[in-house]
Amino acid sequence: MSTMTFDVCVVGAGLAGLTAGVRAAEAGLRVVVLERSADPEYLCNSRLTGGAFHVCLNDIQTEAGRLERIILDATHGAAHAGLARAIATDARRAVKWLQSQGIRFIKGGSEPHHNFVLSPPSLQRVGSEWRGRGGDVLLRTLGAALSRHGGELRRGHRAQELMVANGRCVGVKGAAQEGPFAIEADAVVIADGGFQCDPALLRQSISPEPAKLLQRNARSGLGDGVRMAQAAGARLSDLRGFYGHVMNRNAMTDDRLWPLPWMDNVATAAIVVDAGGRRIADEGRGGVYLANRIAALADPLSAFVVFDQPIWDGPGTSRFLPPNPHMEKCGGAIERADSIEALAGKLGIDGAALAATVAAHNAALAAGTTAQLAPPRSLGSYKALPIATGPFYGVPVCAGITYTMGGLAIDEWSRAMDEQGAPFAGLYAAGGASGGLEGGEDVGYVGGLAKAATTGLRAAEHIVGQRATARA
Length: 472
Known about the structure:
By secondary structure, the chain is an alpha/beta fold. It is 32% helix and 21% strand.
C-alpha cells in the first residue's frame, strides 16, 4: 500500500471539495483532493448545475440577519442555528472569493435568486448538455487554481475508510487503479456529494422504491462519505429530504426530458393525485416538497398532475423552458379530455373519485376554505387556481432527485460531529455530504451551490486557523 502525507485531504472534487482545497492551498497548506472518477471530465452535480447561487430563492446580497430568518423559516426551525447564520453571512463572501479565483457570474434573469448565475449560463436548456457551460467552466477553473496554489488533484482515487487515532481523524484509505493507498493528513474534508444514487440509503430515508425515482443528477452521489464517516463514529443528521422536481414520467427513459422542463409551476397551481384520484400533499408547499411526497408514495410512479386549459396557458408557460410547449416537444406524456371523467379514463384513474377531488378543490377555492381540505392546501407562496375550463389535462409524473439534503452533521465551521455531538477532531464535511441545514420532515430547501461554496470555504478557513493556533 502506498502512503502519502499532506496537511489536508479533501474527498470529492465538486464545488465544495475544490473550494475547500483551493482555499487551504491558497493559505500555504499541502493539499490533495481525491476524485473517485478517473475521467478528466469527471461528472458530478457541480458540472451539470444550472448555476444559480441563492439562499432560499433569495438574493445572496440580502442583509445577513434577514437571510438567517428566511433560512430558519424555510426549514421550519430545523436548521442548525450556527450553520444557518454562517450561510446567511458568508454566501456572498464565498461568491466573491470564487470571483477572485476567476469564476464569472452573470445576472441570469429577473428573479432575485438569478442575480448570481455561473457564466456561461446553463439555466435555459433542455437535456443535459454541459460542456463549456457554467458548471464545467467552474470545475476546470478551480482545478487550475488548485494546481497554481500548489495543491494536487488525484483522479481515479476512491476513499473507502477513515483513519482514526485517539478519537481524531488522521487520514483516509482507499483504492486506485495502481492499488490500495493511504493518505495521512491533519484534516480530512468529506465533500463527495450526497447519497442520491445509493439504493440502501435512499430506501432508509427517502423512498420505499428507489428504482422508481428519476436520477436527475450526475449519477455520482454514492454516499461513500456518509458510510465511512458513520463507520468511524461520526454523527449523521436527519437524512430525510432531497432537492428535486416534479418531472414527466417519461423522463425515466428519455433523457430529453431532464433536467428541464419540469412540472413544478403547474403542479403548485393545480392538484397532484395518486392512482386512486386523491390528492397526495399540499401543493402550496412547492415543487421540491411535492417531489419528496411523490417519492414517499408506496409506488412513486403512481402520481398525476391534473389541471385545465387556463392553468396550462398560464403557469404552464411561466419561467424558463416551461412545460408548455417544451414538454410534448421532448416526448413527454400529456393526456387531454373534454371532461374530468374522460380524462380519468385515459389516466387509468377512477372517474368518480377524480371528479370528487376536483370538485372539492374548486369548492374550497371559491369558499376560501382550502385549509380545511385533506390534505390542507396553503396559499401563501403559490396561488391555487380552479380546474374548471376544458379541455382538461393530466400528466403522469415522477420524482426527479438531484441531491440529498442530509449527511454528516456539521457545525457552523463545517466540523463533523461525533456520536456525542461534540466536534470530531480532524474531520470536516461540506456540500452535499453535509447535513443539518436543509431537509428533514418539512423538506426545507436552502440552496445547494451556496451551501457547497460556503461550507467548503469555512472548512478550509477553520483548518487554516487551527494550524496557525497550533504553531503559535
